[in-house]
């Protein structure tokens, strides 16, 4: 077998990088490459559901390895029934690692007690937003808590099998007359699975967009599943361009649901693709 010398290795590495750049460019439409697009960084972050099979310490470590500085914690890493001291300890662990614990969730709220618990939990953790799924009948109480604690609530849509909020638009219709701090967490994957273009939904609901779960899926149908960003059917460049166009300033958090026991390679590929798109649009 022929051995590759250092010079050949460098050449091959250069070809690999060029191929990666070509791959990102090939996914961009002429519209997405339009001049004058702001190059301000999209606020990428991590939804800790990605690391649901790992401890909080491991989730923090892997988030940092991906070069991210924002994280929202799911109950796998901060149980909803945690004591005040336990919540503060977990929040301190995140902060001491140099990460911004910007949100908590997804949190389901099926009764008044669960609404009260969710807001106290978020308040104790110092989170700015709850990514949640409150029953529609509880939205009045949710609005009271938002006003009382000044914590935002972003309703998360879960796709075609979700009877409450299958799409961002379905949630928007229920909250459009409520306090502006009640908004949406647009899940790009579930939105696409429901037959909606995530970019179009972001544009339509832009005044209530408080969080984004960014991901890719294999099909624009209920059977679609999470895959590495860039390998699926979502037009990621169009979504990113739309978020920048509407001056979206909150977090776009990767929620990589595939490979629960070994998510880091796919998460790294996904973040790399997103950063590549940001470099070339």
Structure explained in plain terms:
- This protein is of the alpha/beta class and 281 residues long.
- It has one domain (6-280): TIM Barrel.
- It has ten helices and ten strands.
- Strands 1-2-3-4-5-6-7-10 form an eight-stranded parallel beta barrel, surrounded by six helices. A two-stranded antiparallel sheet has the order 8-9.
- Strand 8 (216-217) and strand 9 form a beta hairpin.
- Helix 4 packs parallel to helix 5 (139-149).
- The protein is globular.
- The N and C termini lie far apart (42 Å).
Q: Gap between N and C termini, in Å?
A: 42 Å
Q: Provide the CATH superfamily.
A: Divalent-metal-dependent TIM barrel enzymes
Number of strands: 10
CATH class: Alpha Beta
What structural category arises from helix and sheet content? alpha/beta
The CATH topology assignment is TIM Barrel
How would you sum up the global shape?
Answer: globular
Indicate the CATH architecture: Alpha-Beta Barrel
Q: Taking strands numbered 1, 2, ... along the chain, how are they ordered across the largest sheet?
A: 1-2-3-4-5-6-7-10
**Rg from alpha-carbon coordinates:** 20 Å
N-to-C series of helices and strands: HEHEHEHEHEHEHHEEEHEH
């Amino acid at each position: 077998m022929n051995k590759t010398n250092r010079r050949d290795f460098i050449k091959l590495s250069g070809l690999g990088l060029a191929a990666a750049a070509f791959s990102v460019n090939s996914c961009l439409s002429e519209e997405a490459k339009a001049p004058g697009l702001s190059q301000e960084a999209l606020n990428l972050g991590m939804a800790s559901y990605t690391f649901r099979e790992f401890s909080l310490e491991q989730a923090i470590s892997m988030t940092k390895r991906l070069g991210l500085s924002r994280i929202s914690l799911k109950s796998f890493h901060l149980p909803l029934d945690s004591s005040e001291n336990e919540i503060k300890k977990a929040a301190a662990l995140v902060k001491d690692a140099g990460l911004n614990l910007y949100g908590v969730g997804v949190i389901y709220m099926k009764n008044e007690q669960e609404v009260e618990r969710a807001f106290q939990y978020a308040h104790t953790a110092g989170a700015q937003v709850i990514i949640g799924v409150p029953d529609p009948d509880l939205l009045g109480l949710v609005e009271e808590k938002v006003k009382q604690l000044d914590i935002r609530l972003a309703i998360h849509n879960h796709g075609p099998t979700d009877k409450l909020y299958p799409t961002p638009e379905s949630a928007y219709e229920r909250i459009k007359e409520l306090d502006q701090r009640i908004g949406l967490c647009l899940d790009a994957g579930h939105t696409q699975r429901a037959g909606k273009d995530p970019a179009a939904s972001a544009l339509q609901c832009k005044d209530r967009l408080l969080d984004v779960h960014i991901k890719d899926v294999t099909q624009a149908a209920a059977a679609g599943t999470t895959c590495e960003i860039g390998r699926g059917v979502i037009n990621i460049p169009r979504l990113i361009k739309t978020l920048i166009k509407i001056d979206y300033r909150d977090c776009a958090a990767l929620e990589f649901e595939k490979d629960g026991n070994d998510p880091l390679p796919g998460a790294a590929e996904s973040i790399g693709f997103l950063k590549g798109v940001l470099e070339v649009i």
